[in-house]
Amino acid sequence: MTVVSSQTDPEALTLTFVAEFDANVERVWQIWEDPRQLERWWGPPTWPATFDRHDFVPGGRSKYYMTGPDGEKARGWWVTTAIRSPEHLEFDDGFADDDGEPTGELGVTHAVVTLEQVEAGTRMTVFSTFETAEQLQKMMDMGMEEGMREAMGQIDSLLAEARA
């Protein structure tokens, strides 16, 4: 089923996605935990992600880049701030330089991911909080909402491979 809803709240400085998948919570958790699976869906199809580092522990750092259709690279980083396997993950996310280090460009986004068992499988909620209204607007202008919808749209086929 994938993305059920997305909601931007400019007053609260948040962007929320709700998606549902035909897989159990433990299986959906793996798409966050395993960098090879994460990179198969983290970027939209035209901007696939590559994770050079993914330390999936509290305080762990992740470094990645997304490659555009013309070969340009957009680099990013995460710091995992909380993990409660297999249903809760929090991380800070931002833009990075060529070495994968934070640039401070457009500030930091804090993401909270929750996975819950529902009748049809797993409901995943990704709740992102921005520092300022300007940051949220710039991210929207860059296509973050559409890009996340496209990215999450790749998860069903990834989960289906494991069942095949």
From TrEMBL:
Gene3D superfamilies: 3.30.530.20. It comes from the Bacteria. It comes from Cryobacterium luteum. Belongs to the AHA1 family. SUPFAM superfamilies: Bet v1-like. Coiled coil: none annotated. This is SRPBCC domain-containing protein. InterPro entries: ASHA1/2-like_C, START-like_dom_sf. Residues 22-159 form the Activator of Hsp90 ATPase homologue 1/2-like C-terminal domain.
